[in-house]
Amino acid sequence: MQQAKIGALNILAQKEELVSDFLELISFDTKADGNATCVPSSPGQLRLAAFLHQKLVSLGIETKITKEGVVIAKIKASEGCEKAPHLALFAHLDTAGDFSGENVKAALVTSYEGQGIELKNGLKTTHEIIPELAHHLGEDIIVTDGTTLLGADDKAGVAVLLSLAKACMSLDKPLEHGPLTLVFSVDEEIGLSVTHIDVPSLNADVGVTIDGSELGELDTQTFNAALATLTFEGLSVHTCCAKGKLVNALKVARDFLLELPQEEAPETTEGLEGFYHPYELQGGTAEATLKVLIRDFDEDNFKKRQDFILEKVSLVNQKWGREVCKAKIDFQYHNMKKYLDESKFEIVKWCEMAYEKAGVKVFKANVRGGTDGSNLSALGLPTPNIFTGALACHGPYECLPVKSFLKSRDCVFSLVKIISKVA
Ligand SMILES: [Zn+2]
To answer: How far is ligand 1, taken at its centre, from the CA of residue 92, in Å?
Structure first.
């Protein structure tokens, strides 16, 4: 097992501005709080927003912070590139609510040897935990001390955009670019980031989120998603005289659960297969509530799955002889693929060209979840998701292979350049 060193990270940061910016960003605790009633959900996000705002303004970029804490920076096109499609680039300021992001102490594993990594607090990162580590032999990897997450999701993305801003504003040899808008969003981890962005006012033609994971990943497809909330109504009667009268809502819920196909669950599916995922059951004899996620890549199957839930509701009601079960289905997000396919702008092709230019082999991932791009695409801004290089996000094993991180930046720079040439 290899150990990480703080000193080695400091030396790297002195050589590589992207890394030193990243270290500055992860010093802010921006953990999202799903129970908060304020926006953004944690004050650290506002502090980081103010810090970024100041940095961008000092580069001479027109930047504002919205009342929700979203930082929006507008970079005018280079001379001659004014007609290029307007690209919006997104990264989020918050970190996952699952694990602490306070007082992150990052360190560096140099030339990873492939035997796993022992974090400072004794936690061991193995290839069982992060299979992708096997692709990063001989590379430098930024890790945590085991007591916090790293925050590479998505501060690696934020650092890449900051680096893009610097490159565009450079007096020396500026990166050629069309009109750009950089958006640093809040509360992505609790599913609210797009809610707090006025997408039409960005005036952008195409978007990319810099929020993916392994080197080469390009997310162009996500689930279609809905949430079914089922309520079961029982009839509570004292057990002394319950015979023939008591209706136990929990048993009604059980009947419904048994109707869901076992082979169509997250634990039994992969790739492009959809599923039903009952994830929360609350209640007692008199009343119970069940929440079920409905997920499918295919639009028709997605609709069929919603009908299937309703059929099973009637079946349960028939069995019990009255309306003991009701379902409410709320739409959550769309598969972005259809919007990317329908768009007149070839953003996916441009991303693929950019990866190639940066010497990165593309793998198009079918995300078994959503990205901000799902909602942005549905709102008319076709937005695939680009990798940052971060692995095992949301917990203490989170790490960032430095080479992947640098390649993420290279891909974004290439993309900006490629789009600047599109007339
Ligand atoms: Zn993220």
So the answer is: 7
What spacing in Å lies between the alpha carbon of 342 and ligand 1's midpoint?
A: 26
* One domain, residues 208 and 241: no
Return the CA Rg of the chain.
24
Ligand 1 centroid to Cα of residue 360, in Å, is 21
**Torsion angle defined by CA atoms of residues 359, 364, 367 and 372, in that order, rounded to the nearest 10 degrees:** 60
Please report, as a single letter, which amino acid is at residue 9. Answer: L
List the beta bridge partners of residue 403.
none
Torsion of CA 88, 194, 104, 129, to 10 degrees: -100
Are residues 234 and 216 located together in one domain of the fold? no
Catalytic (active site) residue 188:
yes
Centre of ligand 1 from the C-alpha of residue 190, in Å: 10
From the candidates 21, 29, 68, 94, give the one annotated as an active-site residue. 94
208 and 250 inside one domain: no
List residues, by chain if needed, whose CB lies under 5 Å from ion ligand 1: 153-154, 211
Give strand ranges (E) for 236-274.
none
For the entire predicted model, the pTM comes to: 0.89
CA dihedral 124, 125, 127, 133 (to 10 degrees): -150
Q: Write the pLDDT tens digit of every residue in 172-188.
A: 999 999 999 999 999 99
Amino acid at site 289: T
pLDDT tens-digit profile of 90-115?
Answer: 999 999 998 999 999 999 999 999 99
Is the same domain home to 242 and 313? yes
Instruction: Give me the torsion for CA of 43, 44, 48, 49, rounded to 10°.
Output: -20
**What is the CA(421)–ligand 1 centre distance, in A?**
29
Rounded alpha-carbon distances, angstroms, from residue 423 to 178, 264, 352, 384: 10, 46, 18, 21
CATH of the domain at 143: 3.40.630.10
Of 304, 333, 362, which closes a domain?
A: 333
Residue 283: give the domain boundaries: 224-333
Distance (Å) from CA 151 to ligand 1 centroid? 9
Return phi, psi of residue 422, to 5°. -80, 125
Q: Which helix (H) or strand (E) holds 168?
A: helix 152-169
- Identify whether residues 102 and 166 lie together within a single domain: yes
Q: Is 94 a catalytic residue?
A: yes
Residues 211 and 297 in one domain: no
d(CA 334, CA 370): 8
DSSP three-state, residue 3 = strand
pLDDT digits (tens, 9 = 90+) for 319-343: 999 999 999 999 988 899 999 999 9
